Amino acid sequence: MKKAQKYLLYSTNTLNIVTWLKKCKAILFSVSVGFLLYTNSVNAQLKGTHLLGDMGLQSGTQPPPSFMPAVALYNYQTSKLIMADGEKVTIPDINMFLLGIGANFVTNVKILGANYGGSVLIAFASSRIEGDLISTKSSLAFTDMYIQPLQLGWQTKRADFTIGYAIYLPTGKYELGGDNNAGIGLFSNEFSAGSTYYLDAQKKWNTSALLSYALNSKKKNTGNNEIKPGSLLTIEGGIGKTWVKTVKDNAMPMIINAGMVYYMQFKTTKDKMTFPEINNTQFELSNKDQIYALGAEANIFIPSIKSNIGLRWLGELGASNRTQGNSFFITLAPCVKFFEPKKIK
Questions:
Q1: CA proximity to 317, closest of 337, 292, 296, 338
Q2: Is 142 helix (H, G, I), strand (E, B) or coil?
Q3: Under 8 Å CB-to-CB from 113, ≥6 apart: which residues?
Q4: Dist. CA 270–CA 289, nearest whole Å
Q5: Distance between CA 193 and CA 161 in Å, rounded?
Q6: In which region does residue 44 sit, left (phi positive, over 0), alpha (psi from -120 to 50) or beta (all else)?
Q7: Helix, strand, or coil (residue 174)
Q8: How many C-beta atoms surround the C-beta of residue 63 within 10 A?
Q9: In sequence order, what are the residues at sequence separation of 6 or more whose Cβ sits closer than 8 angstroms to the Cβ of residue 53?
């Protein structure tokens, strides 16, 4: 009887300890993250949803009226962290990979004199980066989704203009402290405006800039804790030249566009973190990160397969409070349908 009572007591205590440890897991993670952010300002930055460098040459130009599916491959590599004072810290290699499948459409529908269009991207990612030193080692998995329900494009003799609105949906798996997250748990509203300016009347030389401003929500699946990345301003574009080559027995020409590209991103408001589970501790993180990047891009439209193939590389520099590395893009966009302009009676 005494042995049974001792066993019951032991089992009850063991269950209590296990339950307590499970409860403490989230708290310990919150404490460790909070302490990391609080004691070292370089780590006090959370990533946004915008994939840096996804736009380059002629970023302010809307495609012609058409329907174009696309496949995109993206890879980001880094092993360097840059502190606010410029000190470089070597960190374990981070290698994020993304496979995106999407589509872009532009119609002949006119709104305020502009063509109406939009786009969508469904993606799969591995080793998704949530913060400067918070990344997962997950295998390729369904990640967050991008939808642009509104894009308007105008064209003039020497310049193109676009404005747009997009949303990022937290469709990828995310859990506070999870080691296999495929998403970052954010809903974002992003507003954009850009222009491509042609330096000559033949439109051979062009320079462009696209400004995007993302408003981030609180992260999901964080229990009673509150984690909210600051708003982000992103500028992307480039300067390049276009070559048009006639192709025998084909009405469409071969088009080559190549040049230098760039991006820059600035956090405009502070990250905020609050942990009610640890005495309602709140971290209002005053340090804000920034990054710049320069690189090269080349695109070719092959008329025989009605497809555009693009390559883009960008090397980051001037980082502050964030990682600094290299981004690589490969895109394939076959044109399924060109829409003929409506005839005016």
A1: 292
A2: strand
A3: 154
A4: 10
A5: 8
A6: alpha
A7: coil
A8: 20
A9: 236, 261, 263, 293, 295, 312, 314, 327, 329
In the chain, where do the E strands start and end?
66-82, 88-111, 114-126, 129-131, 134-135, 141-142, 145-155, 159-169, 188-198, 205-216, 226-228, 232-247, 250-267, 271-275, 281-285, 290-302, 307-320, 322-334, 337-338
- pTM (two decimals): 0.83
Name the residue type at position 189. Answer: N
Look at strands 232-247 and 281-285 and give their pairing.
unpaired
What would the two tokens of residue 240 be?
A: 């390049």
Rounded distance between C-alpha atoms, residue 41 and residue 254, angstroms: 50
Task: Answer positive or negative: Cα dihedral of 57, 59, 64, 70.
Answer: positive
Residue 322 identity (one-letter amino acid): R
pLDDT of residue 279: 54
Please tell me the distance from the alpha carbon of residue 257 to that of residue 292, in angstroms, as a whole number: 23
Which residues are within 8 A (CB) of 18 and not within 5 positions of it... i.e. 6 or more apart? none
Contact between residue 325 and residue 317 where contact means Cβ atoms under 8 Å apart: no
CB contact burial 280-291 (16+ within 10 A = b; e otherwise): ebebebebbbbb
Bridge partners, 275 (sequence order): 281
- Model confidence at 1: pLDDT above 70: no
User: Which tens digits make up the pLDDT trace of 312-345?
Assistant: 999 999 998 889 999 999 999 998 787 877 655 5
The DSSP string of 31-59 is: HHHHHHHHH-GGG--B--S--TTS--TTT
